[in-house]
Structure formats: structure tokens, C-alpha cells
Recover the amino acids of this structure.
């Protein structure tokens, strides 16, 4: 029984650590995606093609998300069709990048003007990032409560309560 427990605990820890890293990576890329969408919108507004806008995103996106656009451009340069190359972005970034990918696919395949929709996607992505930051700001007092109590309570006891107790014992022993 103990051998089974000893064997499963490390596996459980590894699985949990991988899930935590994956969630953290998705959270970081979700925060960085609006910046990349803004780059794509600016390129499309300037009259660039979809692949040119992805080239700009591959060069100027934040470091944590740049690899997805680099992989997409590399796949396109290696001969993949544009639609297939766009599938590299969700592989690296995660499912929250599908609206951008779908927009670029529709823009290239159907010729639909992408500027208005891309601007709306950028606004929604920034609003989502703002909500995530507000949520983490609301969680901060809860996360800091334990360290604050653990660090300040001993000093409170030593400065305020200990002298009172020592004085009381001195009165009892003298009295």
C-alpha cells in the first residue's frame, strides 16, 4: 500500500505542476494577445495584407506571444496554405486566439473587410485584460491576509500584550 502511495504522489505532483504551468502560460498569452491584435489592426488599417500583418506581429509582438506568430509565418514561408499556417497560432497561444484566427481566415478567403471586426476584437481583448487585472486586484487583499497576520501579529504580541502580562506577573509576585 505504501509503495503504491509513494509511486502515485510524484506522478500527482508532476501532473499538477504541468497543469499549473499550462494555465499560467495561457493566462500570460491572454494578457499579451491584445497588443498583438493592435499590431495586426494597425497593419490592416495601413493597407497591408493578412500575411504582412502577421509578419509585423511576428516582429513586434511581446516576447511571450511572438513565437506563435513566428511559427505561423514560418509555416506559410515553408509552403503551407495561409489557412493551415494560421492554425499554428492557437497551437501556441491557446483557444482564446480563435476569434483573431477566424477573422484573418475570413478576410483572406472571402475578402471580407477585417478592419472594423479587428478593431472590435481589439476592444474586447483589452476589456478582457482589464477585467482580469481587476479580478487579480480584488484577490490581492485575500492573498496578503495570511502573510500580514503572520508577520504583524507576533510583533503586536511582543510590543502590546507582553508588557501587560509581565507587569501583571510582577504585581502578583510582589503582592
Amino acid at each position: 500500500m505504501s509503495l503504491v502511495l509513494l509511486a502515485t504522489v510524484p506522478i500527482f505532483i508532476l501532473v499538477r505542476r504541468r497543469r499549473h504551468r499550462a494555465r499560467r502560460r495561457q493566462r500570460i498569452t491572454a494578457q499579451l494577445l491584445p497588443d498583438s491584435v493592435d499590431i495586426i489592426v494597425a497593419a490592416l488599417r495601413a493597407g497591408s495584407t493578412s500575411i504582412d500583418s502577421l509578419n509585423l506581429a511576428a516582429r513586434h509582438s511581446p516576447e511571450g506571444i511572438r513565437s506563435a506568430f513566428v511559427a505561423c509565418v514560418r509555416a506559410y514561408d515553408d509552403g503551407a496554405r495561409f489557412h493551415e499556417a494560421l492554425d499554428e497560432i492557437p497551437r501556441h497561444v491557446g483557444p482564446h486566439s480563435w476569434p483573431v484566427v477566424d477573422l484573418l481566415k475570413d478576410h483572406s478567403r472571402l475578402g471580407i473587410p477585417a478592419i472594423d471586426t479587428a478593431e472590435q476584437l481589439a476592444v474586447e481583448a483589452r476589456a478582457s485584460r482589464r477585467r482580469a487585472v481587476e479580478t487579480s486586484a480584488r484577490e490581492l487583499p485575500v492573498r496578503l491576509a495570511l502573510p500580514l497576520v503572520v508577520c504583524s501579529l507576533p510583533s503586536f504580541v511582543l510590543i502590546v500584550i507582553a508588557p501587560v502580562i509581565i507587569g501583571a506577573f510582577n504585581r502578583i509576585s510582589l503582592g
